[in-house]
Structures are given as structure tokens and as C-alpha cells.
Amino acid sequence: MAENLKKKILLVAVCLFSGLEVFAFSARDIVDSSIYDKLVSDGKIQVNHFKEKTYELKLLPKTELSKKISSVWPSEFGIPVIYVENLYLIPKKNLNSSNPQSVNIEKASRVIRSVSKMDKMPYIDEGVEKILYKEAYCIAGPRDRTRVADPVDGDIDGKKAYVLLNDKSLGKINYVLNYFGKEQEIAADFANCSDVYVGPIKCVETEQLRINLVVMDCEEDLMVYMLVQTKVPAISFLENKFYDTFSKRLDAIYRWFLKQF
Out of the domains of life, which is the source (predicted)? Predict the structure, then answer.
């Protein structure tokens, strides 16, 4: 017992002197108490926003990278017509029951950079499993669809990639993908590199279809915040099309994330 205590004290001392963080976030401290209680009971909260008069992210955790993600939507674009937030609290033992300690930010950073593993990603539509992304891979540039390797190696912070997602509903879209990283959290911001069309109709301007993700290490759990947002013309069938698919899209990406562990 005494020997184990000495080892723990030594580890803390080494981390302090080397500038490393010792402890993960406390989930209770980075969200409001009502949100925390619902996460503990249900594991997930979703908030849908449609034609809001003000822009407010109601589930955003109180962390540095969450704050960064909250500002990636350019203010000159005005308020997104549609945005959907999902927040999850996942026990690490549910991801790896035999070795929950292996479920950490380093592992999660490799997962969210493994873009090619989103290929053939399934989602559920009215009880039927369908494919969300018929193709998914990193490309050489915003206009160059030459396939390149996933950027899984090295430090995640500041890393940039370009991605092709062949979306079942929207067709092939090129995205720029920016990554951010801290000791206990990582984040990603997808933004479309060109306009998106549905048939002959331009429905989304460049950079106005965004998918955001923040993963936080919360001691025995991972907290995952997801946000998808866009502006579309005031045409009811377009608004309904995007509004209907956004929650399914977030759930599909979330299941993909879990599967990689």
C-alpha cells in the first residue's frame, strides 16, 4: 500500500514539473447541473434549432475547445437556418470493458482523423438501415480529389485535411477539415469547400454546411458534443429535407465514432 502511494505521489510530481495535466475534466463541472443529470440518466441530449431569432448553443460544454467551436460559424453569414446539437456521456468501460484506461484523448484523436473509416457509414431512416456516405476519404486539396492517406499520425492540434464525402442525399462534397487539440480534449470542424446543389438549385453556399465535434476526457467517461449547422434558401422542401436529415446525420457519425473503439 505504502509503495503504491509513493508511486502515485511521484507520478503527480513528475506531471507537475513537466507541465502536464494530471486530471481529466469533471463532467459535472463543464455542463449545467440539469444537463448533467439528464446525461447520467439518458446518456444523450438533443436540441434542434430551426429559424431561430438568436444564435444560442444550449448544450455547449464549458471548455476551451468547445468555445472555439462555438465561434467557427462566421458572423457575417448571420444565424444558421438549421442547427442541431447532440451531447453524449459515454462510460469508458462501455467502449472497452477489459481496458477502459485505453479509452483516452490520444485514441480519440486517431479515431476522428480516420476519415476513410466513414466509408459506407450506415444510418437509420424510419427503422431501415441505409448508407449515409457512399464514399469517404481524404483528398489532396479543396479542388483535387486525388485520394491521400488519413492524417492519423503526429500532433492533432492545427492539423488540416481535405475530405470528400459522397453523401446519399447531397452527392459528392469536398470539405476542409480543421483539427484542434489540448491535453484533455480534441475538436474538429468540417466546412464545405464549394456550393452544394440539390438538382439545379444551389441550396448551400461555400462554408455554410458545417459539422463540428468536441471530445472531452471526463475521468471515467468521454463527453462528446456534436453540432451540424447550415443556411438554406427559404424553400420549404429544402428546409424540410435538411432539417429531417440532420439528427440522423449526427447519430450516424456518433455510432461511427463508437465503433472505432
Answer: Bacteria
